[in-house]
């Protein structure tokens, strides 16, 4: 496989991931960003903890999440627990003013 083929493959995988994100983002309430991953979830709990050496770390727990990772075969995750010494960003998504009509 040439470098050009690999780049083309990765570009296609990123595009596929973006399309999936676009399709599922409306199902979730929160965006959670850690040093390593980006998650969509409806349930998030952030706990600030202290280590024995005096450092502060964060423990983030999520249920029924979607993870932005193009190398995972399944991006929907039942339970996620992240422990990190780095920043954690949690944002509540604004609900769109436009909703799809229901089938009635």
Overview of the molecule:
The chain has 104 residues and is of the alpha+beta class. The chain is 21% helix and 39% strand. It contains one helix and six strands, in the order αββββββ. Strands 1, 2, 3, 4, 5 and 6 form a six-stranded antiparallel β-sheet that branches. A hairpin with a 5-residue loop joins strand 3 and strand 4.
Helices and strands in order:
Elements: H1 3-24, E1 30-33, E2 38-41, E3 43-50, E4 56-67, E5 76-84, E6 89-92
Antiparallel strand pairs: 1-2, 1-6, 2-4, 3-4, 4-5
Q: How many strands in all?
A: 6
Overall pLDDT level? 90
Count of alpha/pi helices: 1
Strand content: 35-45%
Spans where pLDDT lies below 50 across 5 or more residues: none
The biggest beta sheet reads:
6 strands, antiparallel
Q: What radius of gyration results from the CA coordinates?
A: 17 Å
Task: List the secondary-structure elements in sequence, H or E.
Answer: HEEEEEE
Structural class: alpha+beta
General shape: flat
Q: What is the quaternary state of this protein?
A: single chain
Q: What is the CA-CA span between the terminal residues?
A: 51 Å
Classify the helix fraction into a percent range: 10-25%
List keywords for this structure.
single chain; 104 residues; 1 helix; DUF2469 domain-containing protein
Compact description:
It holds the Pfam family DUF2469. The protein is an alpha+beta fold and 104 residues long.
